[in-house]
Amino acid sequence: xxxxxxxxxxxxxxxxxxxxxxxxxxxxxxxxxxxxxxxxxxxxxxxxxxxxxxxxxxxxxxxxxxxxxxxxxxxxxxxxxxxxxxxxxxxxxxxxxxxxxxxxxxxxxxxxxxxxxxxxxxxxxxxxxxxxxxxxxxxxxxxxxxxxxxxxxxxxxxxxxxxxxxxxxxxx
Length: 172
Known about the structure:
By secondary structure, the protein is an alpha+beta fold. It contains six helices and five strands.
């Protein structure tokens, strides 16, 4: 590859590192082409970008940045799964894929310049609620006081109706 191509790749990696919310590094040795294609499809469905980039080019891209500690994990074939929207999306896909194929290994993870070991990626990051799940929880929390108020306001009328029904049942 010529120098201009390498410079474009370094710039591409820098841009993705700046945009990402999380990153999962994988070791894909032993996977067949069909398995890697299936993995890429799952990443794509979940809004995650997956690329294999030469380690030396990634080292150049992250040199002098807050994520330079990532360098020690750039050994052997490395797949990069960038997540831009949902921080846990890449980790969830990798964890689900590992259930059916144990050849895929997690090297480490990165969330907002914080380096995570492989175990933390699988146990913590992959179990975090996603963006839509958090929105649903927030909406439920915001709606709870209004629902309780409506229930309180309806209670006297409902209790009166039960009383009248009980009296009618007693007369019969």
